[in-house]
Amino acid sequence: MPYLAAFAPPHWTALHVDEVVRPVDFEIEADLVAITFHTPSAPHAYAMADQFRQRRVPVALGGPHVTLMPDEAQEHADVIFVGEAESNWPRFLHEFELGRYAERYCSTEPPSLEHAPMARKDLFHRRDHTSGVLFATRGCPYRCDFCTLAVMYQSCVRKRPVEAVAEEYGSFPGKVIILWDDNIASDMDYAKMLFRALTPHCKWWSSQTSIQAAQDDEFLELASRSGCKQLFVGLESISQGSMDEVHKGFNRVSDYERAIERIQSHGIAVQAGIVFGFDHDQPAIFRETLDFLEAAGVQNATFNILTPFPGTRLYRRLEVEGRILTHDWSKYNGRADVVFRPRLMSPAELLAGYQYANHRFYSWRSIGKRLSRSPVGLPWTLPLNLAYAFASFR
Ligand code: B12
Ligand code: SF4
Q1: CA 77 centroid distance within chain
Q2: Pocket mutation for ligand 2, best pick of 148, 153, 179, 182 (most atoms within 8 Å of C-beta)
Q3: 312 and 146 Cβ atoms separated by less than 8 Å
Q4: Does residue 114 have a pLDDT over 90?
Q5: Residue 344 and residue 280 in contact, taking contact as beta carbons nearer than 8 Å
Q6: Which domains, and CATH codes, for the chain?
Q7: pTM of the predicted model, to two decimals?
Q8: Which residues line the pocket of ligand 1, CB cutoff 6 A?
Q9: Strands, E, within 242-327: which ranges?
Q10: How far is the CA of 266 from the centre of ligand 1 (A)?
């Protein structure tokens, strides 16, 4: 939202409320309320929108879930934004001032990010243990069945000018930055130019990448030199059958160990993105995955229960097969609920296996074992492990 606020004309006053930080004031005097949300927050976002609309405050809705389920969202909004909003949002703000605007603005093609403004830092509230967040690129060229990005961004990768990204990066006063790119390795040449431009700022950063990052030593070397301390790597599964099944066969499980070693050898910690519940996953997958991650000395991992988000190829397949168990979007959280019938285990087994993975990986024994071999200093790896340990035992 601080990014979208940067598009508002200077005579507008914007207030940003992040519900993680403080509750929403439903009595506030506002000309317009704009809300963004993921699928699991959809019921909550709709309830908020309904409450504002009861007071006749116009509500605009946008974000991943609106793009995936526009007709549903329309019922709770005066105006919705389907897809990316770089061109439609400024147009709408102008039309809103004139008192004539459409109910729905659809982005027909992925917008260029050539002139993307800097997000409004004065509207950032959440620290999330970082000093700043920004993005250099948007989108990912791949089309994995379970990922919503192909629908949201039409598999089209866009890049901001390197100088603009470096300027925004340098403008954060603190040391630790997250580049929330979907896949920082989607264009290797661009990434290398970017890393060279970030180096003089002497900060630490982390980002997300597909495993291809590990195939290019120059990429890793330049990333490391520019302050990269951690890469979130979409490993997803140690079952090749599972990767092939969801069209992520470019992840070669037999290469994982070498890929992790190569990233770590550049002083970059690996945060493994792991998903459980694919059709090839047997009940042994949980123990085998944990054995693998511990043996590889992975510094961090995020475990997810496979979740068929609406609009994805995975959702369509499971729906045809009659395996979707609920359409209560609040359960599409990937952490606490199983919303489909897995093929080789029960929903309860999947949930229990996911919990086992979190508890084992973030146990003192495992943290000690993994971090004692880490090529990245404890000031970076330990706080993250403790935060995850705290969250998983809550
Ligand atoms: C950063 C991030 C997070 C951070 C959020 C930190 C924060 N303070 O915001 C954290 C780590 C907390 C997080 C958590 C989760 N995330 Co997340 N996250 C992202 C990520 C990588 C970037 C989001 C972002 O800021 N994008 C930059 C903005 C500019 O892009 P955008 O949101 O697409 O917005 C554009 C348009 O959509 C539109 N727009 C968006 N909102 C609005 C609103 C209005 C009013 C208007 C006009 C326009 C508009 O305009 C923008 C410019 O074009 C995205 C991937 C992605 N590229 O979006 C995943 C993503 C959004 N996350 C996802 C998921 C699944 C989750 C989790 C459920 C994971 C989990 N299992 O826990 C949780 C949900 C947490 C929750 N309940 O809210 C999915 C969402 C899928 C879905 N169907 O909703 C995504 C798309 C990743 C993916 N590959 O599928 N996430
Ligand atoms: S590589 Fe990652 S970001 Fe790209 S489509 Fe697949 S899951 Fe989504």
Answers
A1: 25
A2: 182
A3: yes
A4: yes
A5: yes
A6: 2-106 (3.40.50.280), 127-393 (3.20.20.70)
A7: 0.96
A8: 3-4, 34, 36, 38-41, 60-65, 67-68, 81, 84-86, 89, 126, 135, 147-149, 152, 180, 182, 304, 309, 333-335
A9: 269-276, 300-305
A10: 29
Question: For residue 127, is pLDDT > 80?
Answer: no
- Coil vs helix vs strand at 125: coil
For 387, counting Cβ atoms within 10 Å of its Cβ (0-12 exposed, 13-18 middle, 19+ buried), the class is middle
Q: What is the mean pLDDT of the chain?
A: 95
Q: Which of 234, 256, 260, 274 lies closest to 376, judged by CA?
A: 260
Q: Residue 87's pLDDT is what?
A: 92
Ligand nearest to the CA of 183: 2
Cα(180) to centroid of ligand 1, in Å? Answer: 10
| Ligand 2 atom nearest 155 alpha carbon | 5
For 42-71, give the DSSP string: HHHHHHHHHHHHHTT--EEEESHHHHHSHH
